[in-house]
Amino acid sequence: MTRFSDLKNKWMQDPAFRAEHGALEAEFRLVDALIRARAFADMTQADVAEAMNTSQSYIARLEGGSVTPSFKALQRFARATGTRLRVNFEHP
Which residues touch 51 (CB under 8 Å, ≥6 apart)? Predict the structure, then answer.
């Protein structure tokens, strides 16, 4: 069976893939941060959804990157997971 990391390394050799991957880096980091916050809080998606008064499927879509959350939704997610939301801008 081929590991995902092996496939990704192979795909990263393609300049078009690498460019597209770079363009999505911020979204990947957000998804990773959401999943880490929930894991740190030792909560399921259903737990977070209940704390946010939303559905588990919405949390799954957030963590899957298929929806773009509002700032307010990110604040609610942070409160639900007992974390602090920080936003910063970096120079390239």
Answer: 43, 79, 80, 81
Going from the C-alpha of 64 to that of each of 16, 60, 89, the distances in angstroms are 23, 6, 23
Q: What is the pTM of this model?
A: 0.78
Q: What is the pLDDT of residues 15-43, one digit of tens each?
A: 888 888 777 888 989 999 999 999 999 99
State which fold the 4-81 domain adopts: 434 Repressor (Amino-terminal Domain) (1.10.260)
Q: Within a 10 A sphere around the Cβ of 90, how many other Cβ atoms?
A: 4
